[in-house]
Specification:
The chain is mostly helical. It has a single domain, classed as MetI-like (MetI-like fold). It contains ten helices and no strands. Helix 2 packs antiparallel against helix 3 and helix 6 packs across helix 7. The protein is elongated and about 75 Å long. It starts with 25 loop residues before the first helix and ends with a helix.
């Protein structure tokens, strides 16, 4: 008695399997969706916190540099000197103090942002016309009120331009955080390079670019909302 077996057709290999390993693969986006979203969320969170911390550090330094001109060169030299340290060296230097945590990446990125943010804040405050300050002081504005109500709003366009550069730069540098396993999309890029996983590598790289553009657009829109008086001048 002869048994006739009907062989089922073999399933085609996935577009991101070892046999195909395509650059563009929708199956990878579906199958690894949670992994991709987790990496993207981590990337956004680290970038946002690092920029906020950098801004919090840069603001008093800029005020000190303006208040005491003899300190300006030292402050600028310090912030610029930090930026010259390669990230491949800076993050490992922080590990003994902060461990293999996201804090290591945030501190490193915040220090890198200082160069751009301190200069932007300082130039923005200096761009406020002297007669505007004098008029405000003549109306009884004290130093703190003058800074908050007059100088900072008028300095905002210059400050926002620097903040945009710092944010885009931080998005790119966050990927280096993969050295301590907290690089967001950088973790996927590192894994893609190591394992020659094309779909993972391209997806993470494209998302980095899209994220940088999206954050830049959001900051432009935020600037327009915060400076309604400047719309007429732009148009």
């Amino acid at each position: 008695m002869t048994a006739i077996a009907s062989a089922a057709p073999a399933a085609e290999p996935s577009c991101y399997s070892r046999l195909t390993n395509e650059w563009v693969c929708s199956a990878y986006w579906t199958d690894r969706r949670e992994e991709i979203l987790d990496a993207l969320v981590q990337h956004v969170a680290i970038t946002a916190v690092a920029v906020v911390v950098g801004l919090a550090l840069a603001f008093p330094l800029a005020l000190l540099a303006r208040r005491f001109p003899w300190l300006e060169s030292s402050i600028m030299a310090l912030s610029t000197g930090l930026y010259t340290i390669p990230s491949l060296a800076l993050f490992p230097l922080l590990v003994p103090f902060t461990g293999l945590t996201a804090t290591t990446v945030v501190i490193g990125l915040a220090l890198y942002a200082l160069t751009i943010l301190v200069r932007a804040l300082l130039e923005g405050l200096r761009s406020v016309p002297a007669d505007t300050r004098e008029a405000a002081q003549g109306l009884g504005y004290g130093s703190a009120r003058l800074l908050v109500r007059v100088e900072l709003p008028l300095a905002l366009p210059v400050v926002m331009a620097g903040l945009r550069v710092a944010t885009v730069s931080t998005v790119a540098l966050t990927t280096v955080g993969s050295l301590v396993a907290y690089g967001g999309l950088g973790n996927l890029i590192k894994d893609g390079v190591t394992s020659n996983f094309r779909a993972e590598l391209l997806t993470a790289a494209v998302l980095c670019v899209v994220l940088a553009i999206a954050l830049d657009v959001l900051l432009v829109l935020a600037e327009r909302l915060m400076t309604p008086w400047a719309r007429g001048a732009r148009s």
